[in-house]
Structure formats: C-alpha cells, structure tokens
Amino acid sequence: MTLSFKATRDSRVENSSYFVGLQEYEKNPYDEIHNPGGIIQMGLAENQLSFDLLETWLAENPDASRFKRNGESIFRELALFQDYHGLPAFKNALVRFMSEIRGNKVSFDPNKLVLTAGATAANETLIFCLADPGDAFLLPTPYYPGFDRDLKWRTGVEIVPIQSTSSNGFRITAPALEEAFQLAQACNLKVKGLLVTNPSNPLGTTLSRKELDLLVNFINKKGIHLISDEIYAGTVFGPAKFVSIMEVLQKKILANTGIRNRVHMVYSLSKDMGLPGFRVGAIYSNDQSVVSAATKMSSFGLVSSQTQCLLSAMLSDKKFTKKYVAENKKRLKSRHAMLVRGLKMAGISCLESNSGLFCWMDARHLLRSQTLEAEMELWKKIRDVVRLNISPGSSCHCVEPGWFRVCFANMSEETLNLAIQRLKTSVDTISFGKDSNGFSHKSTENLITKYSVSKWAFPLSRYNER
Ligand SMILES: Cc1ncc(COP(=O)(O)O)c(C=O)c1O
C-alpha cells in the first residue's frame, strides 16, 4: 500500500544543505573529552548563554516546577483537559513580556493572542488561515531555511523570493518588492502576503524604520497580508534599535484601509529565553476572524498546561525578566564580538549586525569561482576538513555565492575559541578555492547568480502536480 503524496514526494523539503549539515554533525559531534576531533555545531540557532539564570530562578521558585501553587498541589488541575484558548494567567504573562522586550512601546491584548507549539506552528497556522494551496507569499532573501518546510509543505503555498544583495547590506528595496510581485504574477500565482523576520535570520540585522514603512505601504497598495516573525525580538544587543511591526502600526494613521487586520505577528520563547524544547509560540493578530480560526487550528499543536503554568510564574516575575533580558543581551553582544574579532583575525569579515544568535560571514574571497557550486565546495571543506557545521547562504536562498550563517550562542566560550582557531589555521594552510598557482579567485566581478523564473517557480511545493 503506497503512502500519501505528503509523506513521500513532498518530504524532500528537508533535503537542503541546512538540514544535511545538521545530519552530518550528528554522525561525528564534537565533544571536548570523548570526541575532540569531531564537528563543531555552528549551524544551530540555539541560545544557551543564559541557562544559569533560568536554573537559578527555578531553584529559587521550586513550586513552579513541582505542580504547586502557594504550597498546594495543582497536579490534578494541570493533568485534566485544557481547552485550546490557553491559560489566562500565561497569556497575560506572555503579552506583558512581549511588551517588555519591545521597550514597552507597544501593549498587547491577550484576547488577540493564539498560543502555538513554537513559531514553527505559528507560521504554518497563519499561512493556513491566510492562503490557499497554490497561493504565494513573498519572502526577502536570505531567509531561514526552515521556512521551505514550515510555510509550504503542508499548506501547498508557494514562496516567491524578494531578492537582496550585499550591495546595500541586504536591505529590502521598493524595486525588489515590485519585482517579486511581478514574478509571482508571471507564474500565475496569487500573492496573499509578505513574510519578514525582524530581526532577520540569517542576517542578524533589524529592519529600519524606512524598510518597515516601505513594507506597510506595499501591502497597503497591493491589498495583501504582512506577517512579521519577531522570534529574535529580545536578542537585539545594539547599536541600531529594534522596531516592532506593531509599533509601526500603532503610529500609522491608516484610516479605513483595514490594514491593521492584515498585519500579523509571530513570536516564540525559543530564542529570547533559549527554550526551543518547551515549544512555546504565539500568533498575534488584530483580525478576530484570524484569531478565531487560528485558535481552533492550534488544537493540532497546543502548549502543555504544565509548561504554561511554569512559564506564567517565571514571566510574571518582572524583576527576574528585566534582569534576564538585560544580561542575556550583554552576553550575546560579547559572544558576537568574540566571533567577529576571531573571524577578522582569520581574514574574514561579517555583515555588520546587531541581533540574533549568528553572524552572516562573508567568505566570497575563499571561493574558487563566484558560483553556488563553489560555495557548496567550500561548505563541504569547512564541514569535512575544518570540521565546523555552518550554513551556506544558498540554503537560505541567498543569490550571491560565498555567504554563510555562523551561530555563536549554542556552545561554550572554549568551543567557540576552538572553532575560530580551526578556521584560522585552515584559512592559512588549506588552499580552499585557490588554483594551482595559489591565487584566489577574488570576487572582483559582479557575478551574482540570478535565479531564473523557472528555477524559483518549480522547486516549489507543486500541490497540484499529482
Ligand atoms: C525566523 C524563525 N522562525 C521560526 C523558527 C522556529 O522556531 P520555534 O523553535 O519556536 O518553532 C526559527 C528557528 O530557528 C526561526 O529562526
């Protein structure tokens, strides 16, 4: 008996080099004692820098993790069935925290919040609510590789890229937005919306006020939706500030356009709190129909009552969250500086960034030629010879070869130092992309590999191909 279309042909969504890198790491993971020659994981955007703060809070508040409230057991209350609306105490605590990490410039109404099992489920649920199979969403490149799975796989929705390059620091421009819209139309795709990550994964940069205005004006003009995935909102360590899409909306006077109802936000505690295993995410929308539909859909990926209960106690502790957010940013800033400095000593620069758990590394000068094939060659060498798993730009759909996402918050300082040391030694001794005369093919020409319409349109999910 054959399996379903989704279970077989569509499952190639995890074939990208991003996922391959994660699998290769699993075969030979670095361990200081047991496997010192193994691969160091720098392809995972995890935040392990402030676990001690969370652990101290847990030790000081034992009731929270022991099914107790004011010393009394609440085990039975938690063990029983909870409906899909979520625990009010947790929703209140979460909206307060969301506001706090946005500098209290915006406030959130818990009635407009839908809890989901992480941002993965939040993004997919929103797509299910806003688009039908065969519709399209526009996404600025480079983007988080997981989106090819999260937004397309089960929904049958297509992603159309909004191109950006290093020529302007990978910023979103009006012509690029229009070009993507036209590309979608040329492919007979109905554009239902635009999705951005702010701060950006993989760039580690925040969208400027100008870009945010551009996006809001664009979706207003085209009559489409905007999803702002703000999963990294609490990682901004400066200098440029973070402006939430909800802050932009609050200030904009957009009378009678209904635009407020077409802007939706995604959040999660996976990055800011370093809790991806807890699976806590949220959708925030001003459109009550979206909130209502998404709440029903959240049945497929609820957050357990136990987790909600623990986190409502933690996030309600204002003194703790204030200290945590400030200290976590300080640690991220110092780690980021350490990696940038180390790479610089190896002759490698990074895109200037102010947020996230990664750097966007510019290794164009190490490529044999300015092609995506050469990028893959270099990536494999870094993985197999230097033994670092980083993510090639092409896995993030970057059109310019030679960029890599390098994570810095999922390991100890010693491991990061070792990774930098390995790279430095290898750059000095291994002739990555150099030819037999020892010359590196520097990126002197403008050799950006432009994807053709067909290349973009046809690796898409093709829901109607069966
Ligand atoms: C931009 C972005 N959105 C969503 C996710 C998924 O997060 P979660 O673990 O909350 O599902 C990630 C994870 O890396 C991400 O970077």
TrEMBL record:
InterPro entries for the chain: Aminotransferase_I/II_large (IPR004839), Ethylene_sulfur-biosynth (IPR050478), NHTrfase_class1_PyrdxlP-BS (IPR004838), PyrdxlP-dep_Trfase (IPR015424), PyrdxlP-dep_Trfase_major (IPR015421), PyrdxlP-dep_Trfase_small (IPR015422)
EC number: 4.4.1.14
Alphabetized Pfam families for the sequence: Aminotran_1_2
Domain of life of the native organism: Eukaryota
Keywords of this entry: Ethylene biosynthesis, Fruit ripening, Lyase, Pyridoxal phosphate, S-adenosyl-L-methionine
Pathway(s) annotated for this protein in UniProt: Alkene biosynthesis; ethylene biosynthesis via S-adenosyl-L-methionine; ethylene from S-adenosyl-L-methionine: step 1/2
Aminotransferase class I/classII large domain boundaries: 40-423
SUPFAM superfamilies xref list: PLP-dependent transferases (SSF53383)
GO BP term (any one): fruit ripening
Molecular-function GO terms, alphabetical: 1-aminocyclopropane-1-carboxylate synthase activity; pyridoxal phosphate binding; transaminase activity
Reactions it catalyzes: S-adenosyl-L-methionine = 1-aminocyclopropane-1-carboxylate + S-methyl-5'-thioadenosine + H(+)
UniProt-listed CDD domains: AAT_like
Swiss-Prot/TrEMBL cofactor(s): pyridoxal 5'-phosphate
Family statement drawn from the similarity comment of this UniProt entry: Belongs to the class-I pyridoxal-phosphate-dependent aminotransferase family.
Protein name as annotated: 1-aminocyclopropane-1-carboxylate synthase
Organism annotation: Dorcoceras hygrometricum
Organism lineage string: Eukaryota, Viridiplantae, Streptophyta, Embryophyta, Tracheophyta
